[in-house]
Structure formats: C-alpha cells, structure tokens
Amino acid sequence: MKKYMITNPIFLSIFDNDIQKNKQKRLGMIYGFYRIIIAVFFSMNFLVAIQKSNQDLMVITNFLPTFIYVFFAIGMLIAYYYYPRNLLLMFSLTIDVLALSLMLYFSGGNNVQIILLFFVHVACSFMLLRNSQAILLTVFAISLVMYQEFYQPLKNAFSYNALSNTGIVIASFIIVGYLSDALSKRVRHIEALNEKHLREADAVNAINKKIVQIIEQGVIVISHNLEIIVANDTVINQLHLPTNISNFCLKDISPALSAVLEPLIKDDESSTIYRQINHSTDQKMHSFTDYRLRITQLDNQYALILVEDLRREQSHAQQLKLASLGQLSASIAHEIRNPLASISQASQLLKEEAMYDNSSLSEEDVMLYDMIYRQTQRVNQIIEDVLKLSRQQKPNQIYIEPRTWLPIFIKESFSGHDVFLHCHTDSGFLFDHYQLEQVLINLINNGLRFSSKSHPHAFVTLEVYEDSKFVYIDVIDTGAGVKPEDISSLFNPFFTTDHEGTGLGLYLSQAFCQANHADLQYIPEHENTCFRISCDKKFIRSLFSQHLA
Fold first, then answer.
1. Could you tell me which residues are beta bridge partners of residue 472?
2. Residue 498: how many CB atoms within 10 A of its CB?
C-alpha cells in the first residue's frame, strides 16, 4: 500500500542544494554578461572615434572586429546557457585573449585599461577552468602582451623603459595568476566542504524522513505558529489529515486539533488527550478514538508531537492484566474447583435421592438442593470464563473479510436462531478469528436473551459497513437497552443486570477487541440496542478465503 507523507516545502528548502550544483554555470553566465558589456563599450569607443575622425577608413576598419566581438559575446552567452561545458569556456576565453590583444594593438600597444582587462581575464580563467588550462591561457596572454609591449617598440630602437614596463606587466600577470589560483583553490575547497555537509545533511534528512514514514507511531512536526512541517502516514490516518494540501496551517486543516495544541505548543514537555471523531456517512452515526499527544521541543521554532493510539496502550495494559490474572487464577483454580465439584456432585446425589418413593426429603429440600446445584454451576462458569481469559496469549491475527467469514460463522454457531446479516463492504480487517467468534457469540447471545424478554420473536441483526479508516460491525437487538446510569459500568468485570449472567461476557469481549487493536462500544444514540465493533480497515484481498481453501 502506498504511503503518503505531508512535507512542507520550507523543510525541503533547508536541504535544497541545486544552487550549489549550478554555481559553476552561474559564474560562467556572469562572465558572459561581463564579456558583452566590455564588447559594447569597445564598440561605443570606436563609434566615437569614427565620428571624430570624419569616418576615416582606417578607423572604420578597426571598428569591425569590435562589432564582430559583440555578436560573438552574445552567441557565447546563449551557447553556454544551453551547453555549460568546460570546452566551450576554454574556447571562448581563448578568443577573449585574441580580442583583447587586437584591441591593444589598435590602441597603440600600451593601453593600461586594456592590460587591466587582461588581469581580469587571467583571474576569471583560474575561477572557471582547471589549473592547467588557466596557466596555459595566462602564458598565452603574457606572450601576446610581451609582443605588444616589447617587440614592437624594439623595431625602432632599444628602450630600457619599454623593457622595464614589459617586466612589470609580466610580473603582474604572474602575481595575479598566482593569487587567483590560490583564491580559487580556497574557494573550491570551501565549496567542496559545503557540498559534503549538504550531502550529509541530505542523507540524514532522507534517513529521518524514511524512519518517520515507516514508523508505526504517529509523528508530526509543527512550528510554534501551528504550521505543519512534517507528518507521516500513520498520523495522517489517525487524525484524518488530507494528503494533498497547499496550505499547511493547522488551524485551517484541523481546527479542533489546533485548539488543543495551541496552549501547549511552546511547552518544553507536555502531553494531552485528543479525541478524534470518526464519522460514518453511511450510518449517520459516529464513534471516536482517543489519542495521547506528547509534545517535545526541537528548538525555539518547532515542536515534535508523538501521537499514541490509546487503544494500543489499553491493549498492552490488557495483556498485563491477563498475565496477572493468569497467575492468580492458576494458583486458586485448583483450590476452588475441587471443593466446588464436590458440592455440585453432592447436590446432584441428593436431588436423585429425592426421586425415590421412600425418600425422607421434602419438596423444599429438593428446591434448596437444586438452588445449590445451579449456583455451583454459575460459580464454575465464572471460573471457566476467568481461566479462558487468563489463558489467552498474543492474538493470532488473520485477515478476515466479513462478507465471506460472517455467513459461515452464523451458520455454524446460530443455525437455529434468527440472526440476520446485512454486509455493505468488501473490505476486511485483522483479528484473531477465535477471539472474534467469542466476542460475537457473547454479543449475539446477549441480544437474543434480552430480545426474548421484550418480544416473543427474538432476533439479532448484524450491520457491517465501513468508512475511510474503519470497518464496523454493529450487533443490534430489540431489547430494552441499557439504562443511562449503567452505561459507565457496562464493561466492568462482574457487572451484570441479568441474574443469570456472570458479568464477564462484555468485559471479556472488550478485552479481546483491545488485544486486537479494535474497539467495542455501546451506542446509546441508536434507536435499538447496539454494540459496535470498530476495526482498522486493511487492504489485503481474499486472504481468509485462501486460508479456508
């Protein structure tokens, strides 16, 4: 089954390193815009020169390379945007060196501004290219500048001033190249560390996200202004949260939950009980599930909330009670049942003696012996029920489809009674089939017994339906129902309104349901007497049918 998870884009943006991955391309694009600006300024300078020289043919000829360089700069920018490769950078930077050398030649060979542009070019080469490529371009640029600054003046006459200027320029190139290389290495080292930390953060984030997603307990992270940051699949199902949302404000998604959390969201450690109403559209009724919300602060802005289904706690507590009861019942069962059996047998023998003609027992004695016998049977039944409860181990859950399982159960257990089944779902749930049988037998027997006291025709109806989260089995009878003052004690052990009952039937039934992470409730709003079993809906198909086959 596909798992869903709510993840706020704010949480994802913390670990988004796409900008880091595209940093090299961004630097190349910045240099591309810089190249266009330089080309445009060169073109404007030559346009001004043309106007001042009265459109001299030589000046116009010098303008043509700058005009071509503008188109080259624009073309390289577009090409690098779609093809950001090192080879393209190397080619374009080489053309830049040739273009700057040509501009230097046209300007007379000693233009300081163009030489400064060479320095920028060298620095960018170490930023954008590998060291070997940057060094090669630097040597190439030095060679062209030496030609412009040194060899051309020597054609006329040797000049120590020209030699000195050339040496300064070469030394400047070397220093700029060295500093640029050192700075580039340091920046790349810092970027590498940053990339490593981001990858580690991404890995931790992915692990935490996976753990939060597959953990059985509900987990939700909420900011102090009640905005959902992360919520796993379990809490989505528990609290009925939507999966596809654009507004992560909890007040808009679940006002009831927001009202419970708002006073506690900034507490260091706190917990509260939240009652989730489970609506049923088909039956126009509802049930509820209680959850414990444990709030822990992550930092000054976020709180981690663990959502615990109290039915699981009740199930665990029930298992502990069963274990304690097993130890107690095992120690006293032998001591009670032996004398009880003797009393029961003695009362039976006395009753049989009363059947003889020469018996000295009166009818009142026979009634007393019969009362003793029936009471010993009742006590024995109580002991049997307690032992049955105490012997239960961890439920052996299987997948049960009510549509296929319940007809077989009714036929085998209540073939001589009017038990009607109305099943409106094909979904199923996990339950120990033996324990489910015991629960339904207790509920149906109670329904038949109390219905017979109110109507001559006793019958019980099973209504099975579902909603988005649960499968419900309603056991409905036409008896007198439960008095309002008795509802709170209905599932307490040894509580009964029937003098023939032991008071353990409903207690055992609820214990079996809780052990299987289900719930058993009395529904006072129903027009008839209704006990409702609520089970978590599962999506396994035909498993029980295959098991029967």
1. 465, 534
2. 12
Q: Could you tell me which of 100, 116, 98 has the C-alpha nearest to residue 39?
A: 100
Q: What is the value of pTM for the model shown?
A: 0.43
Residue 71's SS3 state is: helix
Q: Which of 131, 125, 130, 62 is nearest to 94 (CA)?
A: 125
CB atoms under 10 Å from CB of 430, counted, come to: 18
Closest alpha carbon to 293 in 263, 321, 316: 263
Predicted confidence band at 546 (pLDDT cuts at 50, 70, 90)? very low
- Judging by DSSP bridges, how do beta strands 285-297 and 397-400 pair with one another? unpaired
Question: Strand pairing of 429-432 and 470-477?
Answer: unpaired
CA distances from 45 to 40, 62, 107, 333 (A): 9, 11, 11, 111
Output DSSP code: residue 457: S
Question: How far apart are the C-alpha atoms of 107 and 42, rounded to whole Å?
Answer: 11
Query: Hey, what amino acid is at 536?
Result: D
Q: What is the pLDDT of residues 49-90, one digit of tens each?
A: 666 666 555 556 666 677 788 888 899 889 888 888 888 888
- Percent helix, strand and coil across the chain, each rounded to 5? 60, 15, 25
CA distance 411 to 123: 90
pLDDT tens for residues 451-480?
888 777 889 999 999 887 889 999 999 888
Decide: 463 and 339 in contact? Cβ < 8 Å. Answer: no
C-alpha to C-alpha distance for 70 and 91, rounded to whole angstroms: 16
538-544-547-549 Cα dihedral, nearest 10 degrees: -140
38: how many CB neighbours lie within 10 A of its CB?
A: 22
What residues does 475 pair with on adjacent strands?
462, 531
The residue type found at 380 is: N
